[in-house]
Amino acid sequence: MLNLKRVLVVVDPDQADQPALEKVLTLEKLADFDITLLSCGYTQYLVEGYYFDAIDLPTLRQEFLDERKATLESIAAPLRENGLTVDTLSVWAHPAYEATVREAVKLDADLVVQHTRQHSALSRLLLTHNDWQLVRCCPMPLLLVKETSWKDRPVLLAAVDPKHARHKPAGLDHKILDITMDLSNTLKGDVFVTHSFSQIPLSGKHLQEARQEHQRAFEELLSGYDIPESHQRLTEEAPEFALSEMERELEADVVIMGAISRSIVSDVFIGSTTEKVLDFLECDVLIVKPEGFKTPVKLND
pTM for the complete prediction? Predict the structure, then answer.
């Protein structure tokens, strides 16, 4: 369930626009929750031995963080005047994703929101290293947003894998669907659900038999949800291509998918797809973790 009470928004004080905050304010108009603005600040000039004497560093770092805190406060002020509850945090952080996870856990946030920059004419996500690490390590739902606005009636596309082809934990598909339905109720959006598969010819399965198995699993998964059959999409194609094509076809505003990380050095599996999918998506992405997920980030630093 996506029961929003506390939302952590990662803010870059050096940016004129704050797409992540704008999306959160869209949500806040429809659901009442507290907002925390987080700035993860770091500069090489204030690393010990780089430029200044070590004795000066604590003071200089604090001045650096105070300036960023002041910017956050200037962003928060008009929101508070409009009746919103907004806190601000400015922390010295390298790498930034670890600080974001720690602060999110301390806050017991229900959602973390971060802006992901456009990197090409296609406006694809093309995540940075910090983004990828948040996908891998953030234990609560993570919304990666771009500069585009949601439609008045946004299209939400949930990616599921009822056959667990990638050994996904049981229950994650239901969590993806539950969160998608909650988000739809909040935004008054249209929900579509997709499951794509590609059958390896040497697997010993006839294509027709494989499709029937996937169809049964897909129907069984969706049997408890009020989703029109016309909004259920089962495709025989490699997931990394099928999801990208469907996103463009439906003009999706948000893709909702799951992520599991098996170890600190493992790859990330996104729903029934590989991590390659994210670099081809053109819309916002909401990443969901399985129940009981433990972040690899050390929380007591």
Answer: 0.89
With contact defined as beta carbons under 8 Å apart, do 297 and 130 qualify? no
Q: What is the DSSP letter of 253?
A: S
Helices 172-187 and 207-222: crossing angle in degrees, nearest 10, is: 50
CA-CA distance, 256 to 235, in Å (whole number)?
Answer: 17
pLDDT category of residue 57 using cuts at 50, 70 and 90: confident
Read off the pLDDT of each residue in 165-169 and give the average, rounded to a whole number. 55
Quick count: other Cβ atoms within 10 Å of Cβ 228? 9
Q: Residues 147, 237: contact at Cβ < 8 Å?
A: no
Return the ∠ at Cα 219 (arms to 203 and 176), rounded to 5°: 90
List, for residues 75-111, the tens digit of each pLDDT value. Answer: 999 999 999 999 999 999 889 999 999 999 999 999 9
CA dist 200 and 192 (Å) reads: 26
Query: How many CB atoms within 10 Å of residue 30?
Result: 11
H runs (alpha helix) in the chain: 19-28, 57-81, 96-107, 129-137, 172-187, 207-222, 239-250
